[in-house]
Give the backbone structure.
Amino acid sequence: MSFPDVRMRRLRQSPAMRGLVRETSVEPRQLVLPLFVREGLTDAQPIGSMPGVAQHSLDSLRAVATEAAEAGVGGVMLFGVPAVRDARGSGADDPKGILNVATEVLAAEVGDALVVQTDLCLDEFTDHGHCGVLAADGSVDNDATLERYTSMALSQARAGSQLLGLSGMMDGQVAVIRRALDAEGFTDTLLLAYAAKYASAFYGPFREAVDSQLRGDRRTYQLDPGNRREGVREAVVDEQEGADIVMVKPAMGFLDVLREVRDTVQVPVWAYQVSGEYAMVEAAAANGWIDRRASILESLLSIRRAGADALLTYWATEAARWLRG
Ligand code: PBG
């Protein structure tokens, strides 16, 4: 038996040939830009551990969201940093709280051009920094937290958020919030479940970005980084509870989970390229150790290839401009 030579390089001989056989691409419409708005600011304030990313005032927020829309980015995900915190995170569901006020501003400014999304979690609003309220023994009380999330969901929907990012990792959060929204007539408000959110060291710079008060860790509610099957199971449960979209987070350390989730559920799957992933590339690029633009684009492509239909990235606007040529 004789076979013709296998010559794989035939597929790679020119840019046009490579373009014809490239399996994956990234488009601006698939990118979501996370944004931080801080109560009381008059100007944007840079975040030291995330060069190029800032905490925004309402005015600077409006400006960057408009830039994102003009670049063709598909959505913005808003995080609020309040001036005052308390044990139950009162600022989170206060209609005058910074996140809800900023949501109203963005919905009016860019709500027709892209999808205005809000983070639904208590950690930025609590004085202890946990994602939920605490029981008497100091543990995070799942079911008491669901009541706070429900109130937060209604406030965000009333403020004009089109998609709620449920990032708190409480059991039952998707079902409870879906029911509450529907009962109030918010049947069109989408739910993105941070289904497989791991207790990761790569959230480090984010903690500075939101001025986190957390001491300790989130290991009693976020997933153990060693567990792939459990991450897939979380996504299945969230899909059954009614999530419109499920997420894997962080992205690059968990591409195997992302692939398996994509192959398992039917809903869209998103990934979150988190603050530590951003900071690593920026730091290496600043040292001249890697090619910044090529590294960023390769990272986005890899996350898409692993199965993300869309992704959150702090490079969304810049990458969208590159991708548009
Ligand atoms: C919690 C939340 C976190 C991030 C997004 N939402 C931090 C955490 O769980 O500790 C991290 C995002 C990032 O690192 O870019 N509401």
